């Protein structure tokens, strides 16, 4: 542990197992080897259904954690979640004001979103060095999630201006994809102050995943979506296309929880679909087995999500050595990753006919093709996106910013 202090500020942190919590916990552990790391975060559990899960990540004893309380409201209710994150943001902002001193380094998550507005004001007086690690781009992602209905409304334009200005107040913006850099650059370039923007992708953990082929006695191709079953994942489009394809050689498995869980459950029952299975959440120590039990992993984003998110599940599929079927907008980060490295397919989420046709033809794909794509994916995880490589890059980007 070094003498210089770094503050990590994130709603989600250990022992919570969501992707953002996992990522920031690993960052904190890595930086604690060379810095004094302190964390300001929300409650221990964001998803109460995972309280009994045993986390496979261990937190360094050198890290100091300051937690805030959160209101016990429904995260899947837009109104209740809005109240919850505003109150949580205020409480975390107060902690930052009390704890962080001039000249210290702050790495800020983009959740909870309102905290970004408060941090830009706090930074003005506290004069700390601010790095924002961008995983979600607000308020644009609220349009894709149907939380905000129209980006032409004056209220949206005001909110967007305030958030764009808050991003521009940072010393350094760290984005996780090329498309995200494009979007973030447009947000901040209209202001006089332009923060440095770096691309540091999410990472894989190939050592945590065994390459195991699923047991399949029915000679079906199993596709699997494992992750947040939310509003911006384009899952409704996938369901509709899968139903229309009527390909008896395919089986679609969903694993996870989220706002659309009940919708998918009802969709399966209403259409009497025997080749779709919906299961609940899973812990990280189950992840290797879960991902092994498929031929193809699905990664998806809804229309309008260009540059607004890069699903971390993509990198876990690389580690598991699975081909990726990406369904989203072209030229997004994962679309480029898949096509540039021959590790799967990229389909336009706006083109239902294309998706249906792909499902119809999927049973004709040679198993050797799937195996080759899987090997390419695993090699990419080991040589390019391995955790130590990416975390070293992240630290070097942070250290390159001078006060």
Give your account of this protein's structure.
This protein folds into two domains: 5-203 and 387-399, 3-Layer(aba) Sandwich (Rossmann fold), CATH 3.40.50; 206-383, 3-Layer(aba) Sandwich (Rossmann fold), CATH 3.40.50. It has a seven-stranded parallel β-sheet with strand order 3-2-1-4-5-6-7, with helices on both faces. The protein has a six-stranded parallel β-sheet with strand order 10-9-8-11-12-13, with helices on both faces. The protein has helices spanning 19-31, 78-99, 115-126, 140-144, 154-168, 178-188, 235-245, 261-270, 287-292, 313-320, 333-340, 352-361, 367-383, 387-399, and strands spanning 5-10, 36-41, 64-67, 105-109, 129-134, 172-175, 196-199, 221-226, 250-255, 276-279, 296-300, 324-328, 344-348. The protein contains 14 helices and 13 strands. It is globular. With 403 residues, the protein is an alpha/beta fold.
List keywords for this structure.
403 residues, alpha/beta, Rossmann fold, 2 domains, 6-stranded parallel sheet, 14 helices, globular
Concise summary:
The chain is α/β, with parallel strands linked by helices and 403 residues long. It is 40% helix and 16% strand.
CATH architecture of the largest domain: 3-Layer(aba) Sandwich
**What is the mean predicted local confidence, pLDDT?**
90
Strand order in the largest sheet: 3-2-1-4-5-6-7
As a whole number of angstroms, the C-alpha radius of gyration is 21 Å
Q: In percent, how much strand structure appears in the residues?
A: 15-25%
Compute the number of strand runs: 13
Stretches where pLDDT is under 50 for at least 5 consecutive residues are: none
Count of alpha/pi helices? 14
What is the H level of CATH, i.e. the homologous superfamily of the largest domain? Glycogen Phosphorylase B
The level 1 CATH classification of the largest domain is Alpha Beta
Give helix and strand order, one letter per element, not per position. EHEEHEHEHHEHEEHEHEHEHEHEHHH
């Amino acid at each position: 542990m070094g003498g210089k202090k770094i503050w990590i500020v994130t709603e989600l942190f250990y022992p919570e197992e969501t992707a953002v919590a996992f990522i920031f916990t690993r960052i904190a552990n890595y930086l604690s080897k060379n810095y004094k790391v302190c964390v300001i975060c929300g409650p221990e559990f964001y998803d109460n259904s995972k309280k009994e899960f045993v986390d496979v990540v261990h937190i360094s004893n050198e890290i100091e954690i300051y937690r805030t309380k959160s209101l016990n409201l429904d995260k899947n209710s837009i109104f209740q979640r809005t109240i919850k994150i505003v109150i949580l943001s205020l409480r975390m902002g107060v902690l930052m004001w009390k704890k962080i001193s001039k000249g210290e380094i702050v790495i800020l998550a983009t959740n909870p979103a309102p905290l970004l507005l408060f941090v830009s004001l706090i930074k003005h007086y506290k004069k700390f060095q601010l790095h924002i690690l961008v995983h979600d781009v607000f308020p644009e992602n609220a349009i894709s999630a149907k939380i905000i209905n129209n980006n032409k409304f004056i209220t949206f334009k005001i909110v967007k201006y305030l958030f764009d200005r808050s991003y521009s107040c940072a010393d350094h913006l760290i984005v996780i994809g090329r498309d995200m850099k494009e979007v973030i650059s447009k947000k901040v370039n209209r202001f006089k102050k332009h923060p440095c923007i770096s691309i540091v992708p999410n990472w894989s953990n190939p050592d945590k995943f065994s390459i195991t082929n699923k047991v399949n006695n029915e000679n079906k191709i199993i596709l699997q979506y494992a992750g947040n079953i939310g509003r911006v994942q384009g899952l409704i489009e996938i369901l509709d296309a899968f139903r229309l394809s009527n390909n008896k050689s395919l089986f679609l498995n969903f694993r996870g929880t989220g706002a659309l869980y009940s919708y998918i459950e009802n969709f399966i029952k209403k259409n009497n679909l025997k080749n779709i299975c919906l299961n609940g959440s899973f812990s990280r120590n189950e992840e290797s087995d879960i991902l092994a039990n498929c031929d193809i992993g699905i990664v998806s984003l809804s229309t309008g999500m260009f540059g607004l998110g890069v699903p971390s599940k993509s990198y876990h599929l690389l580690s598991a050595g699975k081909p990726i079927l990406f369904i989203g907008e072209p030229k997004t980060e994962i679309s480029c990753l898949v096509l540039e490295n021959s590790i799967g397919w990229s389909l336009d989420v706006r083109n239902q006919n294309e998706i249906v046709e792909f499902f119809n033809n999927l049973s004709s794909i040679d198993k050797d093709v799937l195996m080759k794509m899987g090997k390419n994916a695993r090699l990419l995880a080991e040589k390019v996106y391995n955790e130590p490589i990416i975390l070293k890059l992240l630290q070097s980007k942070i250290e390159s910013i001078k006060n």
